[in-house]
User: Which sequence fits this backbone?
C-alpha cells in the first residue's frame, strides 16, 4: 500500500480523516458534588478514583489514606493499581507506627510485581513485624540476597529457639550461612552452624575460628573439619592447630582413635 495513513475509528464505524483540536476537562469539578457522591456511593470505583485523583496532589492525611484503604478492598480495580495503593498504605502505617494495619497489608501484598529493592524492603518489614513464616515463604520464592543480615539473623534465631521444622530445610541452612558471613554476632546462630554447617575446609575453619573465639563448644565442627581435610588431602596448613585443640578436650574422640 502506497502512502498509508492512520485514522481514528469510533464505535459507530465513523472515521476521522482530518485533524481537530483536542482538549480535556473534568466532567465534575465541584468539590461539594464529589463529597455527596462519596457519601452516597462510597464503594463505586469511579467515585473513588475521581476523589483519589484529587487527593494525590494534597497532603497524605487520614482522608487520603481512607481512600487508598477503600481502593484495596475493591476487586474490580487493576492489580498493578492495587499494588501501588498497598505500597502507599504500608509506607504510611510504618511511618506512623500503626503495626496492626501494617501487618494487615503486608500479609496481602503480592511481591511478584515489585522491583527487587521494594521486595527486599517488604520482606524486611515482615521480619520487623514478626511475620517470620511469611517472610521465609517469600524468601523461598524470591531469594534473600540484599536483605539486611541483621534481620535474617533475627529470623534464624527465632526458628532455632522454637526448634521449628523449618531449620531442617536447605533454604534455612543457606540463610544461616548468609547471616553468618555478613553478621557474626549471634551466638545462637553460631551454635546452630557449629552443629550443622557443611562446607569446604577453609569455610569450616573460618567458622571454627569465630566459634572458638566466642567460647562456643566446637567438638562437632572440629570433627567435620578434620574429616574434610583428611579426605581432600589439601588445605592442611591449619589442621595441626585444630587437631591440638580437639585432642585437648576430646582425647578419646573418634578421630583420635
Assistant:
Amino acid at each position: 500500500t502506497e502512502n498509508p495513513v492512520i485514522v481514528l475509528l469510533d464505535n459507530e464505524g465513523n472515521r476521522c480523516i482530518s485533524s481537530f483540536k483536542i482538549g480535556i476537562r473534568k466532567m465534575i469539578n465541584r468539590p461539594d458534588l464529589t463529597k455527596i457522591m462519596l457519601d452516597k456511593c462510597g464503594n463505586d470505583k469511579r467515585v473513588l478514583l475521581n476523589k483519589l485523583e484529587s487527593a494525590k496532589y494534597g497532603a497524605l492525611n487520614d482522608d487520603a489514606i481512607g481512600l487508598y484503604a477503600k481502593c484495596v478492598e475493591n476487586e474490580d480495580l487493576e492489580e498493578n493499581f492495587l499494588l501501588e495503593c498497598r505500597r502507599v498504605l504500608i509506607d504510611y502505617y510504618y511511618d506512623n507506627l500503626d503495626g496492626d494495619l501494617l501487618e494487615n497489608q503486608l500479609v496481602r501484598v503480592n511481591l511478584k510485581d515489585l522491583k527487587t529493592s521494594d521486595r527486599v524492603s517488604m520482606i524486611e518489614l515482615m521480619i520487623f513485624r514478626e511475620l517470620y513464616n511469611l517472610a521465609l515463604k517469600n524468601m523461598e520464592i524470591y531469594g534473600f540476597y540484599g536483605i539486611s543480615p541483621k534481620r535474617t539473623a533475627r529470623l534464624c534465631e527465632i526458628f532455632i529457639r522454637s526448634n521449628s521444622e523449618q531449620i531442617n530445610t536447605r533454604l534455612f541452612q543457606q540463610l544461616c550461612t548468609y547471616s553468618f558471613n555478613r553478621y557474626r554476632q549471634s551466638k545462637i546462630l553460631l551454635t546452630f552452624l557449629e552443629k550443622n554447617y557443611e562446607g569446604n575446609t577453609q569455610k569450616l575453619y573460618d567458622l571454627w575460628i569465630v566459634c572458638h573465639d566466642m567460647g562456643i563448644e566446637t567438638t562437632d565442627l572440629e570433627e567435620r573439619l578434620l574429616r574434610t581435610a583428611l579426605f581432600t588431602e589439601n588445605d592442611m596448613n591449619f589442621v595441626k592447630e585444630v587437631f591440638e585443640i580437639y585432642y585437648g578436650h576430646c582425647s578419646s574422640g573418634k578421630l583420635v582413635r
Remarks:
- The beta strands are 8-9, 15-16.
- The longest helix spans residues 79-95.
- The first strand starts at residue 8 and ends at 9.
